[in-house]
Fold this protein.
Amino acid sequence: MITRRQFAKTIGLASALGLIESQTAMRAIAADRRSLGYLAYRTASAEGAWTLGRVDGAVPKELNGVLYRVAPGQKETFGVALRHLFDGDAFVSRYAFRDGQVTLRARFVETAARVEERNAGKMLYKEFGTMAPSSADREPLPKNQPNVNVIRWDGRLLGLSEGGHPTSIDLVDLSARGEWDFYGTLPRDVTFTAHPRFDPQTGEGYAWGIRKGEGWALTVYRMQRSGRLKELYAIPQRDFFMVHDVLLAHDHLVFVIPPVRLDVARLLTGQVTVAEAFGYFDSEPTRFVVLRKDGGGAPVTIEHPAAMVFHHGNAFEQDGKLVVDSLLFPDGSVLAALHAFDKDSVAPVTPNVLTRVTLDPARRAVVSRAEEFPRFDARRVGTHARYLYTAALSAARPFAPLEIVRHDLQGGADLRIEAGETRAFGEPVFVPHPGRREEDRGWVLVQGYDARRDETFLEIRDAGTMDFQARVWTGQHIPLGFHGNFYAA
Ligand SMILES: [Fe+2]
């Protein structure tokens, strides 16, 4: 008996080998939309460096710089199928743009744990959502996977998860240089976020971690230009908490903390993963925690009806109020769906809602539904920015976004670009045009996956019109993953 997923994999493989017509593969894959998400995120095809010569359209000559992206790069570890979308060793990609030419380098991040498993020839560490096979030698430890985001900071590329310290990676050859503690300023028992935000006025970053040692605490840092962290707050929490992203306004930071808790006693049995020990408590509030970014004053907590959340858009201050844009899920159904990567079907996810919340007095307004990976012009962090770019999801294809959307948050029409029946998009990254200050002058760079070709591409759109500029084919399967960032040359 062959499962639908195995069938789709077999069809895809046979097609890649030229054994069947690609039209047949396209129909088979289109008939099982869940499989497109599986295909787009499954194991990378190869490590290497390539000059990308197959381009539809033309890459703008003014687009010069480097786009780094990272993804969980393998979905099987020595025969163990990984169960969670977040599981898998980090696979980092570097797209370099120069005078209309594009090169790509991509490889796994050689963390100590990855090397240790390779030398042992077996899975030794547990993933976020997958247990390692039991072993008489030792209890499997969690792996710190820098597979969620990559940022350039202080002459390094930092691979970020949020389960531990960042991993330092060479900016050019992408070789791993071990974990990074910001010159000893990140304590050993504090994790580091995957979503620091940067102040465009000062160039400083704002980051946080979960202090796990003597009592849980939300520990907030300024990432100083010296490369060192300065602790701004350590706010005690009565229990485990989850904070994936933050909002940075002109003078304030806003954390949105959903009612997610960890069953620590269950986790300590060693029989379950972190993902299995998560619980979502819809009778409890989601908390908006407002801090001053200069570290002064006490935190202000505003309670809001329960909502699950990963990502936010921008935030700004107006007449003494804070206006924040956030992608709120009305329940915790997304948590189970993320943990069904190895399944042939996934339970429906209640769509999330791009919600504008005005704090003090609290006011909610629904803008649109079912989206992820919001990005905007980083020069406009903390201001009343007009445009927000997102990847639109559907309940039937929760991990294979159908469209990218340019939202006009000042009342204009949204622009939507469809991926197409056998394609999925990732996170749209806004890149400003050099020398132009207008908010929407620039490009949107979005990685995509084409199931018919079983190939990853990078698409370039005009950010002002969303008109097609170029589609650069990689010749590879690079998992779509979650986040990345562009740095101008
Ligand atoms: Fe994220």
User: Anything to note?
Assistant: The CA atoms of residues 157 and 368 lie 34 Å apart. The chain has one domain: 32-488. The longest strand covers residues 308-318.
